[in-house]
Here is the input.
Amino acid sequence: MIDVTALGEILVDFTPQGFNEDGNPSFVANPGGAPGNVMAGLSCLGKKSAFMGSVGSDQFGKMLRDTLKDKGINVEGMVDVQIPTTLAFVHIAEEGERSFSFYRKPGADMMLTKDDLKLNLISNSRIFHVGSISLTDEPVRVATLTALKYAKDHGVAVSFDPNLRPALWESLSDAKKWILEIMPFADIVKLSEEELEFLTGANDIQVGVEKLTKQYDIPLLFVTLGAKGSYCFANGESLMVPGTTVYAIDTTGCGDAFLAGALYQILEMNVLGKELTKKELRSILEFGNAMGGYVATKNGAIPAMPTLEQLQDFFKSKSE
Here is the structure.
């Protein structure tokens, strides 16, 4: 049995690393892409994960496939296509916050078709995870919707992180339409504070959550606030846990690390599909926050994901 299978983008993040002797920025190629990041986070924590997506038949594609395999992730659902592997250049501000420039017109991640799907990976999973970037273009959009319907038909819980990247959509109205189209499938949703406002028009978290959960029956909703911490909404209850104070050098992958941590705790406590107590919600948020905090202190996303032992040491250092 697989714990979590993800479908979506896997790409190369070019992360800045200082300047060369001429004063030009230097970049390091790091494997990334939100769904791949989440699977790497889970695998590093000891959970069985699988990834479905497409990469180019190029050196970057080989690097991504090898990276996931090295992390112990099942890559049976990965396909090679004759389109270049998708690239993203990460620009990091002084506080560690980042923005992106994408090279994806087209990119290999868009080329996954419904015929490429290894559906048995989904039916053999406890959770199926998707983002919204696989909804921006065809044929991967149809593949994503086909996989979601299959997961629902086979009683597999669905995790959804919209991971909004405005530059990848034709328009923001198109992004909103497709993100909301996925909400009825979702059992677990993770949104950033900004994504919640984008989807609901409310800049108050409680108001935004009430609007979203009134329209869609979402059993478990997380809202991340970056360094400030995270909220969880379940059973009509809300809980907020402050973040872990760290010296952030790169926040790439922090939200993905949070979600990997949250899913890990849900699986570890065996509470999938159950009504959660406040104590259980707190445990999920604390673990997710620690995962996000740890990754903020490292460069890159997948390379920064901690093992359980590394995270326990991090927990210990923060409590001393």
Remarks:
- The first strand starts at residue 2 and ends at 7.
- The mean pLDDT is 92.
- The chain has one domain: 2-9+33-84+110-319.
- Residues 278-296 form the longest helix (19 residues).
